[in-house]
Amino acid sequence: QVQLQESGPGLVKPSETLSLTCAVSDYSISSDYYWGWIRQPPGKGLEWIGSLYPSGSTYHNPSLKSRVTISLDTSKNQFSLKLSSVTAADTAVYYCARHKAAEGTDYWGQGTLVTVSS
Amino acid sequence: QPVLTQSSSASASLGSSVKLTCTLSSGHSSYIIAWHQQQPGKAPRYLMKLEGSGSYNKGSGVPDRFSGSSSGADRYLTISDLQSEDEADYYCETWDSNSWVFGGGTKLTVL
């Protein structure tokens, strides 16, 4: 059973950079899946942020693209998200996830709430 | 990019059946989707992959009460013998050109 676990600060100041890490257990992130980030503002729906393929190719939601960096650390079997210049609108529960083209997102982390506030 | 449309809410009685709908935008009616369940305060859970043919593959541990079907651009999730724990938000998801998109979700109330 693949397990994903997010970690990172729960509070970030406006204009700073949000940084989160997702540790993956019982599956190698070097294998044939995409690894991505999805967020959910309080009381709202799900929004795809971006994903990364083990080859190093990254893909981002056009609405966030210029602020998003996703990277892979195969030595630690984890991947990371950086979202720059945050505002209150970036307050959300952030989920890491595994997905595969033609199959969708099949594993989710438990999520971590990040609040943007001074 | 495809757009997924879901009704904001639905309700049904305990022990009955309910059919939730996810509609793909024009030009994307053949797309495969996935259904997810999000119980209150929890992370989403993958339920199944559903093709335009109506063929579906469920995730591990998903009860037999959950099934999928398709008609044109519409993708359906049917839950039979509704239980109290089925009260949740249900999201559909699809993907195109290395990007993913979610529907707005349907809040299911079990009466």
Short description:
The complex is a heterodimer of chains A (118) and B (111). Chain A is mainly β.
Task: Give a verbal description of the structure.
The complex is a heterodimer of chains A (118) and B (111). With 118 residues, chain A is mostly beta strands. Chain A has strands at residues 3-7, 11-12, 18-25, 34-40, 47-52, 58-60, 68-73, 78-83, 92-100, 104-108, 112-116. Helix content of chain A is 0%, strand content 53%. In chain B, strands 2, 4, 5, 6, 9, 10 and 11 form a seven-stranded mixed β-sheet that branches. A four-stranded antiparallel β-sheet of chain B has the order 1-3-8-7, with no helix packed on it. The mean pLDDT of chain B is 96. The A-B interface holds A 1, 34, 36, 38, 45-48, 51, 53, 57, 59, 61, 95, 99, 101-111 and B 32-34, 36, 43-46, 49, 59-60, 91, 93-95, 98-105.
SSE layout and pairings?
The complex is a heterodimer of chains A (118) and B (111).
Chain A: E1 3-7, E2 11-12, E3 18-25, E4 34-40, E5 47-52, E6 58-60, E7 68-73, E8 78-83, E9 92-100, E10 104-108, E11 112-116
Parallel strand pairs in A: 2-11
Antiparallel strand pairs in A: 1-3, 3-8, 4-5, 4-9, 5-6, 7-8, 9-10, 9-11
Chain B: E1 4-6, E2 9-12, E3 18-24, E4 33-38, E5 45-50, E6 56-58, E7 66-71, E8 74-79, E9 88-96, E10 99-102, E11 106-110
Parallel strand pairs in B: 2-11
Antiparallel strand pairs in B: 1-3, 3-8, 4-5, 4-9, 5-6, 7-8, 9-10, 9-11
Total helical segments of chain A:
0
* Secondary structure category of chain A: mainly beta
- Please tally the β strands of chain A and state the result: 11
State the secondary-structure class of chain B: mainly beta
List keywords for this structure.
heterodimer, A: 118 residues, mainly beta, seven-stranded mixed β-sheet, four-stranded antiparallel β-sheet, 11 strands, globular, B: 111 residues, 0% helix
